[in-house]
Specification:
The complex is a heterodimer of chains A (183) and B (667). Chain A has 6 helices and no strands. Chain A is mostly helical and 183 residues long. Among the domains of chain A are: 65 residues, Cytochrome C biogenesis protein (Helicase, Ruva Protein, domain 3, Orthogonal Bundle); 36 residues. In chain B, the strands form 2 sheets. A 5-stranded antiparallel sheet of chain B has the order 2-3-4-5-6. Chain B has a 4-stranded antiparallel sheet with strand order 1-9-8-7, with helices on one face. The C terminus of chain B is likely disordered. The chains are: A mainly alpha (183), B alpha+beta (667).
């Protein structure tokens, strides 16, 4: 069923609204990937790093959140290494070597861990594609049937008159609520 | 007391069996009296579980430490008011609470069932009772709150200190009630399928109960955030940890459901989709209870610690399997009345909204299970926490807010692009203007700019609709206020929905402000010393220690200045519980609509100094304001029409668009 030809003209209308949405989301995602550490001062960089490192002895808490002694020590190490001019990546690697990959609050975007990141993005893209196909299919049946019904476009002048009438009576216009319901 | 409680549980289990057998047999064989009698068993069950609850409460009040649960979760020093919290502090008690909540909700649902649901109700109530039976048997065989100790200890262990907080009076009950309340719409929909009522007979009742569960769960999540913010002492309110996610995922699925069920109500389409959505919400809610009951440690690996968790998982698997089987069995009968007119219509917008909401839920689920996958695939433990969710879910949330602005402008059936452009023009210009203004004021983060801009878009679209509607009505001669109230009353699901949208905007504002513009400083202060944070100056004035039987309470008194002008005093505390080797913090918060000044004492040092974490969190107050707004919106959307039309229900012609529906207004 999904393979039947699509109704591209009605999909075109939809795409005009879905495309900006996609662009927006893609932009948001790219920005979130690139502009991660725009922090300025060392302390701000340190705080940003604290939020990406998990305290190994307190499950689920970052060293920023945790008040355990180990977290305190790790915070001090972060500051010390930053002061020595080490990069954020180097500091993360330092902790990964000591405590394993689980110390990172999110899996690094390489190797097997790419699966963690790619699955949701791919899944969402697939979902949107599927939605477009379903909408195309559902509306295709409609166009064939709509021959029996007068076209909304042809009716527009009359509907406008109804609108004006309603407006005069102060009941509201068609476009609110139960518009074009044929009630 | 213990015997009375256990007896009540056994009676409740038997009543469940009777209600299940009675209603199914009665419906199959057409015996209305048997169905009636089964219905009364449902009512009686709520009463019996109330007796069980009362006997546990009185055991707590009488400090009867011969009952293991009482000994583990209270002690002599505990103030009586905390019995309410101690009651659900552990597995056993919380399952009793869940069972009580489910029995009351079931009784209410059965009692208030609309006439058009008469045929499906016996099956629906049987499903509710099956779920209730599960909880009761878990208590009887695995986690009996009335289990006794051979010898009563002289004193109990006391309550978990993190729970001794006002937020805990409401957060766990509303979260648990919300999770278990999803059973009702699920039972109504599945009951309808079983009864062969595959059209729209269940829609009003399913929607009502879907909204009720949605509102309770939403408030439960918000209260949890509030509790975390004031007591966990890290300045945040949401950490994306598995337990939080467990309450959030079913809420997302319910949000999708309460939107798309409106399409079925109005147009008689998306029937199969709604069945799938409400089932998904139920599974996610069961999954949530599984995670919460697995153990107190918020880690995916702690499930094995408690057998109860695995029983929940087995229950979930059975429920999922049977419900998929029911859907497959009735698949051919669940057809929609009519096709979709246009991809540019409110129906289509709702589908996109459903897709995005489910995407967030699934991403969240993926984040919860990926560490297990990594462990199985490569034997390496990884963590999936906040940075992951922020980066993946953040953009989807923005897209949802965008849709929240545009969606309501789309009429049912088909929108003309030119109309849409016209109605979007002013809101978009306003949004762009605000973005430009913010950019000039120095807001440079693209994310924050997009979020604020979209919030303005949503608010101006809602306000535009309200103003237009109100003005049209006021021309009839009513004054503006009366016209506005009339407008809200004319289409409650719609205008209640708008109010909820405003609540979501408030949430978005608070989350955006505090995520991108919070300032944090860790300082050590001697008494009398001052430290500047943002535009504030904080002075550590004095401290006080109180030794209580079960705890040591340290309180720091601080003074807040702006320049030299004192703004007021705040108190922040830290309490140490030797029995639990645990300490809890109580943040000192000075809240204004613009920002919160938030102080937590991290440590009181021996030399009289103390270390503090000081944060300035912009806009956080609006997150808490969103709660009541959300409730108001949900109530408006739920409120039955005059004479309870929404509940008593009217039959609509099947295929015709909702002519004469309780909610079609104006004409």
């Amino acid at each position: 069923m999904l393979l039947t030809p699509l109704n591209w003209s009605s999909l075109g209308n939809l795409l005009k609204f879905v495309l900006p949405l996609l662009v927006l989301m893609a932009a948001g995602f790219l920005i979130s990937c690139t502009v991660k550490e725009g922090a300025v001062s060392l302390e701000e960089q340190a705080q940003a790093l604290d939020k990406t490192l998990i305290c190994p002895v307190c499950p689920g808490e970052t060293i920023d959140q945790s008040q355990a002694e180990l977290a305190r020590q790790m915070r001090a190490i972060v500051r010390e290494m930053l002061a020595q001019g080490r990069s954020a990546e180097e500091i993360k690697q330092f902790f990964v070597k000591r405590y394993g990959e689980g110390v990172l609050a999110s899996p690094p975007k390489r190797g097997f861990n790419l699966v963690a990141w790619a699955t949701p993005v791919g899944g969402l893209a697939l979902g949107l594609l599927l939605l477009a196909l379903v909408l195309g299919r559902m509306t295709r049946g409609r166009k064939a049937a709509s021959d029996e019904e007068p076209d909304e476009v042809a009716l527009r002048p009359y509907l406008a008159m109804v609108d004006a009438e309603l407006e005069k009576e102060g009941i509201g216009t068609r476009k609110e609520g139960s518009s074009s319901e044929g009630e | 007391m213990a015997d009375l409680g256990t007896m009540a549980l056994i009676i409740a289990a038997l009543l469940c069996c009777y209600a299940i057998a009675g209603s199914v047999l009665g419906a199959r064989a057409g015996l209305p009296r048997l169905i009636d009698s089964a219905r009364r068993a449902v009512y009686l069950n709520a009463l019996v579980l109330a007796v069980a609850t009362a006997s546990l409460v009185s055991a707590f009040l009488a400090k009867d430490f011969s009952i293991q649960y009482v000994a583990e979760h209270s002690n002599r020093a505990m103030e009586p008011v905390y019995v309410w919290v101690a009651f659900y502090a552990g597995n056993e008690g919380s399952i009793l609470f869940i069972a009580l909540a489910l029995s009351c909700l079931s009784a209410l649902a059965v009692w208030k069932a609309p006439k058009e649901a008469t045929i499906l109700m016996p099956y629906a109530s049987a499903i509710m009772m099956v779920v209730l039976f599960f909880f009761i048997t878990v208590m009887l065989f695995l986690a009996n709150p009335f289990a006794t100790l051979a010898q009563a200890p002289p004193d109990g262990r006391g309550i978990n200190p993190l729970l001794a907080h006002p937020g805990m009076f409401f957060h766990p009950p509303s979260l648990m009630t919300g999770l278990v309340a999803v059973t009702i719409p699920f039972a109504v929909v599945t009951g309808a399928l079983l009864a062969g009522q595959t059209r729209d007979q269940w829609v009003d009742m399913g929607r009502t109960w879907g909204l009720i569960a949605w509102a309770i769960l939403g408030v439960g999540n918000l209260l949890g955030s509030w509790w975390a913010y004031t007591i966990l002492g890290w300045g945040g309110y949401w950490g994306w940890d598995p337990v939080e996610n467990a309450g959030f995922m079913p809420w997302l699925a319910l949000t999708a459901f309460v939107h798309s069920v409106m399409v079925q109500k109005r147009r008689g389409i998306f029937r199969l989709w709604n069945v799938v959505l409400v089932s998904a919400a139920f599974f996610l809610a069961s999954f949530g209870m599984f995670i919460n009951r697995g153990g107190p440690v918020p880690s995916v690996h702690s499930f094995g610690a408690s057998t109860v968790g695995w029983v929940f998982l087995a229950f979930l698997a059975v429920a999922a399997f049977s419900s998929i089987a029911v859907i497959a069995w009735r698949y051919n009968k669940i057809s929609s009345a009519q096709p979709l007119d246009s991809p540019l219509s409110r129906e289509a917008a709702f589908l996109l909204n459903n897709l995005l909401l489910l995407a967030i839920a699934l991403v969240t689920m993926w984040g919860v299970v990926f560490p297990l996958i990594s462990e199985l695939a490569r034997g390496v433990t990884v963590t999936v926490a906040r940075p992951f969710y922020d980066q993946i879910n953040g953009p989807i949330f923005l897209a949802l807010i965008f849709l929240m602005g545009v969606g309501p402008l789309l009429p049912w059936r088909s929108a003309s692009p030119s109309d849409l452009r016209r109605s979007l023009l002013l809101p978009s210009l306003l949004a762009l203007g605000v973005v430009a203004l913010l950019a000039l004021m120095g807001v440079s983060n693209w994310y924050a700019l997009a979020s604020f801009g979209l919030c303005v878009l949503v608010v101006s679209c809602v306000v535009r609709e309200w103003v237009r509607g109100t003005l049209a009505r006021s021309k009839q001669g009513h004054n503006l206020v009366a016209s506005f109230v009339h407008l809200l009353g004319s289409n409650r699901p719609r205008y209640g929905g708008y109010i909820v949208h405003l609540a979501v905007v408030l949430l978005a504002l608070g989350v955006t402000g505090s995520s991108f513009y919070s300032v944090q400083k860790d300082v050590v202060l001697a008494q009398g010393q001052r430290e500047g944070v943002g535009k504030y100056e904080i002075e550590y004035v004095s401290s006080r220690v109180e030794h209580k039987p079960d705890r040591e309470e340290w309180t720091a008194n601080l003074m807040v200045y702006r320049g030299d002008r004192p703004l007021g005093a705040i108190q922040a505390g830290r309490t140490f519980y030797p029995e639990f080797r645990m300490s809890s913090t109580r943040a000192g918060i000075r809240s204004t609509p613009v920002e919160d000044l938030y102080v937590i004492p991290s440590e009181f040092l021996d030399d009289g100094r103390a270390s503090f974490r000081i944060l300035v969190n912009p806009l956080v107050m609006w997150i808490w304001v969103a709660g009541p707004v959300l409730i108001v919106g949900a109530l408006v959307a739920l409120w039955p029409d005059k004479g309870g039309v929404a509940l008593s229900g009217r039959r609509r012609p099947e295929a015709a668009p909702a002519v004469g529906s309780a909610y079609s207004h104006e004409l």
